[in-house]
Amino acid sequence: MISVTTTLTGFSFIYFLYSRIPYAMLCKTFERCEATTKRLAITEYLVQLFLQAIKLTPSGLLELLYMCINKLCPDYEGLEMGVGESFLIKAIVSSTGRNIKNIKAEYRSTGDLGTVAMNSKGSQGTLSMPKPLTVHQVFQTLKDLSQITGNQSQKKKIDKINSLLVQCRGSEAKYLIRQLEGKLRIGLAEQTVLSALAQSIVLSKPETSKLSQEKIEQALADAAAIVKSVYNQLPCYDMIVPALLEYSIKDFPDHCNMRPGIPLKPMLAHPTKSLTEILDRFEDRKFTCEFKYDGERAQIHLLPNGKSMVYSRNSENMSDRYPDIMSKLANWVMPTTSSFILDCEAVAWDKENKQILPFQVLSTRKRKDVKEEDIKVQVVVFAFDCLYLNGESLLRLPLEERREKLRSAFKETENEFYFARQMDSNNIDDIQVFLDVSIENNCEGLMVKLFDGEEASYEPSKRSRNWLKVKKDYLSGIGDSMDLVVIGAFYGRGKRTSVYGAFLLACYDPETEEYQTICKIGTGFSEEDLLNHYNALKGHVIEAPKRFYCLGENPVKPDVWFEPVKVWEVLCADLSISPRYMAAVGKVDASKGISLRFPRFIRVRDDKGPEDSTSSEQVMTFYYNQANSSKGKGDDMDY
Ligand code: AMP
């Protein structure tokens, strides 16, 4: 149960002096969260922290929240926290005067630079007590840091980090360094922080204390659901937090409506292994099949003022990457359409033959500083959903109605814009033929979507069972590819000695925030691929495996370790339980994980961040869904 009363304990002094939230108070909360794995306990610690802020410094709540999720601004504004390991080591050396060799040795044994920084500070004598840090000061310095570019930027960054490190006390250095690295990894998943935010708002209202315990619990659950749903549609704390402080929980959604210019987290699909699985799932329901285009997801926005932008599936602003889409937009928007958010796929296109080109062609396009006149690979847009139109959200409408609106608000324009090809028959033979046609047209397969009724609404950020994907290779293997993070590599042999010849891959567990090893891969690479991978990865080599790499007791040991930055799409024959790999450990076996048999590299997924990679939950589902249950349960082999 959460207590409504708050105590200021030892932090009141700093509060009193600076009317700011002490950084020590935040770090104390981090320590408590780190010491438990219980989600309820973590939520409660956060609620207590937020309640204090709401009561004493409501204007500081937004910064406090950003610090908890370790972000500086909404994703689409593109300011990133991550400071490279070598910078941080230099900063620790210069702020503590410790020998770099000792620092590196301690880092290799702990795998955590934060702990190294804290220990280094601890062993250092101080002549005078520096002024205590506040959350505001740390947040603003981190923001400044992320904007430093150009001349002398390295020195300027190290000086800034130093200025903070010098003021750190106790565990502050540990969390400061982890924040600078870009991830805290103490269980503060965004969903937990959202729940805590909602609960603290409810508990801060005097009228809550008059309710029965049962009613309070209900109010807390309702508030968490409301805040999460609003966040899904308007992922912008800069708007949500002030509205929450100003209005009642009930009224606040009216002041936080989705709008063009702010990207929603896209809806995702569940993999299936056969067409009969689709028929089983959608039995007696109306559904529709669409081509699954093999390009890059593009959420296109038009504001009433005429401004337009394209966002990636990670809410990254890609408008500069696609100036050609931006400049042609007016050709395919009907005159009556004044604002919209469209869900589309941008696909490489052969203008001469009016044909879709494979994904590999799209991936050769430049990703930065693209000038329209230099573009060699043309793209077209295939629109499959409309989420917002002329000032109104369409999210709650069934797909059938959203599609009607889509078709009336835009027009197909040759070589520029098309509606996703669709087929509405529920007959399995028709679907099989449509699947074959999609493959002939260089698509990946089909998306099959529930078409009418309440469940056919658009569910932002959800991997929904109301959207199913069927890929062409569904008959062989496990039905879908996986997107895995490269965390280590082995040097090649023979003519491959100057590059990495094999790699260690991991999936991601969002609950524990760990990367869990899943396989060693050395198949599917051309000589050119290997050279490209070497060049792309060599700058991300780290001294030791990160503390959040789950490797098991008898781990596979690569020659080099990497930061978790690169995501690759991989296919495999099947999955097996393994004592050496740790994917989904604890889910199918207490100490063993799941590994991939005969993994094969398909392609790099630059559109996915490491935390968007296949989750351990999904790996577990793949394992249980294997076509032949007797297969894949044998002993693991080390490829
Ligand atoms: P996957 O990345 O395999 O989970 O597949 C989902 C992706 O397929 C989406 O993120 C879109 O980029 C892409 N896609 C292609 N065609 C469609 C479509 N008709 N409907 C929804 N998503 C599509």
Describe the structure.
The protein folds into four domains: 21-70 and 188-255, DNA ligase, ATP-dependent, N-terminal domain (DNA ligase i, domain 1); 85-181, Orthogonal Bundle (DNA ligase i, domain 1), CATH 1.10.3260; 268-471, D-amino Acid Aminotransferase, Chain A, domain 1, CATH 3.30.470.30; 482-632, OB fold (Dihydrolipoamide Acetyltransferase, E2P), CATH 2.40.50. The protein is 36% helix and 19% strand. The strands form four sheets. Strands 13, 14, 15, 16, 17, 18, 19 and 22 form an eight-stranded mixed sheet that branches. Strands 3, 4, 5, 6, 7, 8 and 9 form a seven-stranded mixed sheet that branches. It has 20 helices and 22 strands. With 639 residues, it is α+β, with helices and mostly antiparallel strands. Residues 1-8 and 627-639 have low confidence and may be disordered. The structure holds adenosine monophosphate.
| Strand percentage | 15-25%
Structural class: alpha+beta
Look at the structure and give the mean pLDDT.
90
Instruction: State the distance separating the first and last CA atoms.
Output: 50 Å
Q: Can you tell me the CATH class of the largest domain? A: Alpha Beta
**Number of E-type strands:** 22
Shape by Cα distribution: globular
How many discrete domains? Answer: 4
CATH topology group of the largest domain = D-amino Acid Aminotransferase, Chain A, domain 1
The helicity comes to 25-40%
Instruction: Please give the radius of gyration in angstroms.
Output: 26 Å
CATH superfamily of the largest domain: DNA ligase/mRNA capping enzyme
- What hetero molecules are in the model? adenosine monophosphate
Task: Please give the largest β-sheet.
Answer: 8 strands, mixed
Total helical segments: 20
| Architecture (CATH level 2) name of the largest domain | 2-Layer Sandwich
Low-confidence stretches: 1-8, 627-639
Quaternary: single chain
GO molecular function: ATP binding; DNA binding; DNA ligase (ATP) activity
Main location: nucleus
EC number: 6.5.1.1
InterPro entries: ATP-dep_DNA_ligase, DNA_ligase_ATP-dep, DNA_ligase_ATP-dep_C, DNA_ligase_ATP-dep_cent, DNA_ligase_ATP-dep_CS, DNA_ligase_ATP-dep_N, DNA_ligase_N_sf, NA-bd_OB-fold
